[in-house]
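[Automated response] Your request has been received and processed.

Submitted sequence:
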Amino acid sequence: MDDLQQLRGRIDETDEKILSLFMQRMELCKGVAEYKKIHDMPVFQSGREQQVVDRIKALTGDKSLEAGTAALFTTIMDISKILQNRAINRVFNENYTVPDFDGAKNIGCQGTEGANSEAAARLIFGSRPVKFYRTFEDVFRAVQSGELDYGVLPVHNSTAGSVDSTYDLMAKYDIFTVREVCLEINHCLAAKNDIPVSDVACVYSHPQALAQCSDFLTLNHLKNKDYGNTATAAEKVAASADGDNIAAICSPECAKRLGLTIIADNITDCQLNRTRFVCIARELQVDPQSDAITVMLTIPHTEGSLYRLLTKFYVNGMNLLRIENRPIRDGSFDVRFYLDFSGKLSDPTVQAVLCDLDQNLEYFRLLGTFKNE
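Generated structure:
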């Protein structure tokens, strides 16, 4: 029997042969790409792919290895499709403009003056007037109708996770993300009068703010209720009767503006508590500084479908920055994925990946670009 070192040597020799054959196959794929380009044929042809997989499984000769050989050749074909898309050099989307943040006149966010969304909007638009809307969906509607040039909404918090409603609305409305900003969030507990925390009858705030301060609420046995926004919750407290003893989780700035008393400060579960906000527009706009792409897609309920999706980014040397998923809400258990990955829209490799995703997935949509910070 060969010793381990000899076996590893033979494996290395075999790997070299496999690599040589792989390179030969990729050279042949270049010819296929040229033919498809000349004849304006799509890169993806599902019938041909299934033929290859069925043939390989039949040739395997070992039932226990059929799934492995199918996975191997499926990956090889996925790499082939990526290279073909690069060679054909089709453009996925070239109809976009450059954002005009300096010239924007109509800017909006959910909530009221003093809301964190307003603070995020100020990071982009400075001291220009901001229109406030009752709900996140009202902001999306205003952007899609043209009433707003840009809308600013929270999308992810470092403590409480995704803002699910924003992701759901991205799927519902035909809008694009054009920028992201990150805001450090500091929550306090504010009441109309200087009362002990133990006397608070109920705490009101946005569900995300309540989640970000869950440890504090639990420790102090405080009843709490969802409210539309941290700033509107603070307004509710300011307008309440003296004996109601209700409080709001909001920013210290908001509490001071409304004349509320801060009865507990720095109450977030994590000291470093940040929220990422997206700026949305009606049309695709690409800032020259943007170095990340965001997309929305679904994948089939087949073995290895998520692995195959991730392979596309790995082969192209693209870093996945974030993966989120949300239920489609059609009565099924299907989910919709939201992916952020590194890359510029002007890069031919990014264009090849976008074409590949568009051709191979049942549902795919480019959501926009942004500068990853």
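Summary generated for your ticket: The two ends are 57 Å apart (CA to CA). The CA atoms of residues 203 and 224 lie 4 Å apart.
If you did not submit this request, please reply to this message.
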